[in-house]
Amino acid sequence: MYGLKEGPCADYIVHCCCQFCAVSQEYRELQNHGFDPSVGWIANADRLNLGGARPMAPPPTATPMAR
Q: What would the pLDDT profile of 37-47 be if each residue is shown by its tens digit?
């Protein structure tokens, strides 16, 4: 979506090997693009939709997690 360059290894490998690094990088990237991850999806969508833009829907989920 933002045209980011892919690193030397695939994203799923980074998430498997160093989860804390991957999550903190995603947090910083969201902040750099104007989102506030600490308030959640709905608050960010509401803030972005104030300008009369098309409403944002939460990302689709395949199936709910179950044990």
A: 888 888 888 88
- The residue type found at 12 is Y
Spans of all domains in the chain:
11-51
Provide the terminal-to-terminal Cα distance of the chain, rounded to the nearest Å: 33
How much of the chain is in helix, strand and coil states, percent to nearest 5?
50, 0, 50
Per residue in 10-54, pLDDT (tens digit) is 777 878 888 888 888 888 888 888 888 888 888 888 887 775 555
SS3 of 10-61: the string is CHHHHHHHCHHHHHHHHHHHHHHCCCCHHHCHHHHHHHHHHHCCCCCCCCCC
Rg of the Cα atoms in the chain:
15
